């Protein structure tokens, strides 16, 4: 089972490294059916573009052994924290910053974090730090901080009508509609979907 798991991780790592190369070198423009990064990801993977970006940078930085030991979510948070530090340093030094080149130099085994446990500051490595502690360091919010409440799915007739129209349009896949206090908000809208979203909404007839 362990050998099979490791083989699966190696395959996962190679696949996302290859996908990362396609995205980084803009090779997706050679695909006439999916000439943008987002459309190429949708065509060739079962993941969202956001998840694909996370997977490609994890595969770039971590080995299969590290992916097995630390897990993807923790590695992604660790990368976010390190890139923020390096970006800040680059801005202070007024030098160019290449996030991919910077990510390639991250050594996960050498990362150390100062966290507060039991009222004391302690130093831990990536294996011992918790996902919540990493998330707090990445966002600047304390551990256990509650996320702001999000709008719920549309409940009004008008909101449901808008949501249904978007759901029926295959060109608007990935867009979600939420409603709060009779106001609608849209999430997951790609730049290339904005014109189609506008056309779809303009065709709707909603009661005042």
Account of the protein in words:
With 208 residues, this protein is mainly alpha-helical. 52% of the residues lie in helices and 11% in strands. The protein is built from nine helices and four strands; from the N terminus they run ααααααββααββα. Strand 3 (176-180) and strand 4 form a beta hairpin. The radius of gyration is 21 Å and the shape is globular. The protein starts with a helix and ends in a 6-residue tail after the last helix.
Q: Could you describe the largest sheet, including whether it forms a barrel?
A: 2 strands, antiparallel
Please provide the ordered H/E string of secondary-structure elements: HHHHHHEEHHEEH
User: What ranges have pLDDT less than 50 throughout 5 or more consecutive residues?
Assistant: none
Helix fraction bin: 40-55%
Radius of gyration: 21 Å
Mean pLDDT: 89
Number of helices: 9
Report strand %.
5-15%
Question: How many E strands?
Answer: 4
Strand order of the largest sheet: 1-2
How would you describe the shape?
globular
Q: Give the N-terminus to C-terminus distance in angstroms.
A: 61 Å
The chain-level structural class is mainly alpha
Task: Identify the notable features of this structure and list them briefly.
globular, about 210 residues, two-stranded antiparallel ribbon, mainly alpha, single chain
Secondary-structure topology with pairs:
Blueprint: H1 2-24, H2 37-44, H3 49-61, H4 64-70, H5 72-93, H6 99-104, E1 112-117, E2 120-125, H7 131-139, H8 157-168, E3 176-180, E4 183-187, H9 194-202
Antiparallel strand pairs: 1-2, 3-4
Helix pairs in contact: 1-3, 1-4, 3-5, 5-7
């Amino acid at each position: 089972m362990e050998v099979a798991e490791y083989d699966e991780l190696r395959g996962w790592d190679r696949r996302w490294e290859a996908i990362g190369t396609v995205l980084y070198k803009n090779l997706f423009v050679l695909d006439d059916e999916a000439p943008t990064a987002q459309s190429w990801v949708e065509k060739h993977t079962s993941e969202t573009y956001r998840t694909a970006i996370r997977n490609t940078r994890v595969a770039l930085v971590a080995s299969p052994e590290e992916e097995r030991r630390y897990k993807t979510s923790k590695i992604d948070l660790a990368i976010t924290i390190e890139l923020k530090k390096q970006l800040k340093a680059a801005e202070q030094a007024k030098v160019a910053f290449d996030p991919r080149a910077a990510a390639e130099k991250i050594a996960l085994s050498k990362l150390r974090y100062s966290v507060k446990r039991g009222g004391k500051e302690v130093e831990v490595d990536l294996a011992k730090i918790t996902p919540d502690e990493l998330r707090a360091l990445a966002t600047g919010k304390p551990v256990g901080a509650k996320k702001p409440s999000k709008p719920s799915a549309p409940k009004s007739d008008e909101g449901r009508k808008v949501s249904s129209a978007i759901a029926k349009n295959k060109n608007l896949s990935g867009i979600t509609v939420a409603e709060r206090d009779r106001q609608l908000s849209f999430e997951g809208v790609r730049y290339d979907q904005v014109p189609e979203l506008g056309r779809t909404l303009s065709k709707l007839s909603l009661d005042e």
